[in-house]
Structures are given as structure tokens and as C-alpha cells.
Write a structure and sequence with these properties.
Largest sheet: 6 strands, mixed
Bound molecules: guanosine-5'-diphosphate, magnesium ion, zinc ion
CATH superfamily of the largest domain: P-loop containing nucleotide triphosphate hydrolases
Structural class: alpha/beta
Number of domains: 3
CATH architecture of the largest domain: 3-Layer(aba) Sandwich
Helix content: 10-25%
CATH class of the largest domain: Alpha Beta
Strand order of the largest sheet: 10-9-8-11-13-12
Distance between the termini: 36 Å
């Protein structure tokens, strides 16, 4: 915006970020319409879910605008992985992860485990949805997800097409900031449309406010839902684990986390070490082999720096 703008400290106001498009940030302030704020370079990274301080700036004419003056410390984040750098932040201040899977395409347990690691190591509660239960193979696929029910996760059968289970999901997601994640094609958009009928999910308030359409797609967009916030993540292809350490990966597996207290070495990686209680449990069937293999794969990728 440059020199014709000058700072006028008439008001500072707090809000949370609902979308990010390049230098422009959509911010919701309680009790009023969302505003579009400019991100000064010094403000650094800003993502959906961030709690920000805005300052009002006045132009030489009568127009006023908003600028992000600061970002409050973040907790519980979602990242996407990046080959070049380590993970890039996508959503901050997450209260719940909603992992969407489907009868078709079949659930990829390795990916579900990766989402669960991201949730568990940051103490983010999570629920797992099985969408498209209107399809014939539903019972068989639900059976495959039984392993997560046994671990204490809520696995909810739903159908965005018929509406089955949607009200139950709506109740669970009605408070706090929930992020929907899942492989493309599982029906995240269809579910969002069920939960938020009438909201044009493709058109954020930002494009209306600027009248210029979207510059680039925001990787995540927040929508108010009942007393909470739903965040769709259509742009995340590769899901990252942030700055998790190799030794923290086992925290992401509830059954390993509880078992590892009995390993001989406190820093046991549960691979070759003698006296490993986790490998004994895998041998005896107390820990599923698929989950253990998931653990090994995720740990290896974290060790390789592929957060
Ligand atoms: N049979 C069935 N198809 C669904 C359901 N939900 C979504 N679909 C279909 O699955 C495909 C992918 O849905 P979409 O919402 O775009 O998935 P996304 O990539 O996760 O956002 C579309 O063709 C939808 O019509 C459902 O509950 N039942
Ligand atoms: Mg989609
Ligand atoms: Zn061990």
C-alpha cells in the first residue's frame, strides 16, 4: 500500500483469520462482518485460525483499511509437507481433527495413521468419518476401521448423499475449530455442503469484498458453523507433521505409547533394541502389525527430515 497510507492508532482490534490470499487476509471480528486486512511483510506467516491484532490505517482520502499488526502465539497446528523446506503451516489453533475416509476410494490406513500422529502428538482430539455408507460395500469397509474403534476413536458412518449420520457429526463439530482432512474424492466438499447448506464454499467473503475475485486459492478456508468453525483443506495434498521429533512419533500411536513404558531402554525406537515390549506385543497380537508398520514408516520419514 506504500507511502500514501499512514498509521493511525485510532483502534486496535482482535479477530481470527478465516482465509489467506497472498498479501490479503480475511479476518472475522466478533459481532461484525469479516474484514479484509493487509499483511505487512514484517508480520511474517499468517494462516487460517490465527488470532491476530488488527490496526486501522487511514488513507489520504476517507477510506480506512486494516493491517495485521501482530499474531498471537499458536497452539495445535496443521501442516502440509514440503519437499524443499520442512512442513508449512496451514491452520493454527485447532481444537479437533475430523478425518474423512470413504467406502470408495477405500480408506488408506497409512494416511489415517499419519493424521492421527499429527493429532496425538499435539493432543488434538480427533474423530474418523466413513463417508458414502450408502454404497453396498459399506459394512465390509466399516469392519476394516474397527481397529480404530478398539483404540478408542470414534468412527462415524455417514453419507453426504443420503444424509445418514450427518446430524450426529454436526453435533460433534458444533463447537471449537475443526479441520476436515482426507484424501481427495472421499467427499469432504460434499459433507461441507451438507453441513453448510447455502454457503457457496468456493466464494469466500474476500472476493466479494475486493470485487476482484480470488488471486490464488487459499489452502484452507474457515466457515462459521453453529458455535464453532469448520475448516476445509482442499489444497493439502501432502500432509505434514510439523517439527515433530523422531522420538515423538510413538506418542501418535496410542497402543505403542502405553506399551513402550515397559521397553528396556527409555529411548527405544522399537526396531532392533533388545527388551522391546512393543515388538513383543506385535508378536503376540496385542498391537496390530499394520499399525506397527505404519509407525515404522512414519518414523523413518520423520528421521529423513520429510516432515
Ligand atoms: N455415493 C456417494 N457418493 C458421494 C458421497 N459423498 C460424496 N460423494 C461423491 O464422491 C465424489 C467426491 O466428492 P467430493 O466432495 O468432491 O470429495 P473431496 O475431494 O473429498 O472434496 C463426488 O463425485 C461426490 O458426488 C456419498 O455420501 N455417497
Ligand atoms: Mg473437495
Ligand atoms: Zn521398544
Amino acid at each position: 500500500m506504500g507511502s500514501e497510507w499512514f498509521r493511525s492508532l485510532t483502534s486496535m482490534i482482535n479477530g481470527f483469520v478465516t482465509a489467506v490470499y497472498g498479501e490479503r487476509v480475511e479476518v472475522r471480528i466478533s459481532g461484525r462482518d469479516p474484514v479484509v486486512a493487509f499483511r505487512s511483510r514484517s508480520a511474517g506467516v499468517i494462516v487460517v485460525g490465527d488470532s491476530v491484532m488488527l490496526e486501522q490505517v487511514k488513507g489520504e482520502g476517507k477510506e480506512t483499511g486494516w493491517r495485521v499488526a501482530g499474531v498471537e502465539p499458536r497452539q495445535r497446528c496443521i501442516w502440509r509437507s514440503s519437499k524443499r523446506r520442512r512442513s508449512r503451516l496451514v491452520v493454527a489453533n485447532v481444537d479437533r481433527l475430523c478425518i474423512v475416509s470413504a467406502v470408495e476410494p477405500l480408506p488408506r490406513e497409512g494416511l489415517i495413521d499419519r493424521y492421527l500422529v499429527a493429532a496425538e502428538w499435539q493432543s488434538i482430539p480427533s474423530v474418523i468419518l466413513l463417508n458414502k455408507v450408502d454404497l453396498e460395500e459399506a459394512d465390509g469397509v466399516l469392519g476394516r476401521l474397527q481397529v480404530y474403534t478398539v483404540l478408542g476413536y470414534e468412527v462415524l458412518p455417514v453419507s453426504a448423499r443420503t444424509g445418514t449420520g450427518v446430524e450426529k457429526v454436526a453435533e460433534i463439530l458444533s463447537e471449537g475449530l475443526t479441520v476436515l482432512v482426507g484424501h481427495s474424492g472421499v467427499g469432504k466438499s460434499a459433507l461441507m455442503n451438507c453441513l453448510l447448506p447455502g454457503v457457496d464454499l468456493k466464494t469466500a467473503a474476500l472476493s466479494q469484498a475486493t470485487g476482484k475475485g480470488r488471486y490464488t486459492t487459499s489452502v484452507a478456508t474457515a466457515h462459521l458453523f453453529r458455535h464453532g468453525i469448520l475448516v476445509d483443506t482442499p489444497g493439502i495434498r501432502e500432509f505434514g507433521l510439523g517439527d515433530i521429533l523422531p522420538g515423538q512419533v510413538s506418542i501418535g500411536f496410542r497402543e505403542i505409547r502405553t506399551k513402550q513404558e515397559r521397553c528396556r531402554f527409555a529411548d527405544c525406537s522399537h526396531r532392533e533394541e533388545p527388551g522391546c515390549a512393543v515388538r513383543v506385543a506385535v508378536g503376540e497380537g496385542g498391537i496390530s502389525e499394520a499399525r506397527y508398520n505404519s509407525y515404522l514408516r512414519i518414523r523413518k520419514s520423520v528421521e529423513a527430515g520429510e516432515g
